[in-house]
Amino acid sequence: MSAKNKTNRTDAGRGTRSVCLELTWPDADSVCIAGSFNEWHPSVSPMLRLTDGTWAKELVLAPGRYEYRFVVDGVWVDDPAATDYVPNPFGGMNSVLTVAASAPPSPSPRHISSRGRTTPSRLPNPA
Predict the structure, then answer these.
(1) The domain at 2-120 falls in which architecture?
(2) Rounded distance, CA 100 to CA 63, Å?
(3) Does the first or last residue of the chain, that is N or C, have fewer Cβ atoms within 10 Å of its Cβ?
(4) Residues 46/55, Cβ–Cβ less than 8 Å
């Protein structure tokens, strides 16, 4: 299982950033994200299954620091690609996602990964 965090574009009018989270879990029937950005309700942020066993979700977030976990078939799991973790009150660890206040615009439709690599967007275009 693997995961990637990517940031995309900035909405200057609202000060928000588009962040794409991905998790590779081919055998999952459902994957959601629960975190401080959605009051820890997994059903608010279901992920989209891509054809290669990867799940993806684009979130629009204001700049700040967010804690989150993936929920795979009802089981709360760590993000293996996270670079920062904090203990949670249940004896586990929450992943930490930091959304920067500003960043240079990236060419669309690409994402800038949290590891500094640029990769094509794999989410379907809702056009």
Answers:
(1) Sandwich (2.60)
(2) 5
(3) C
(4) no
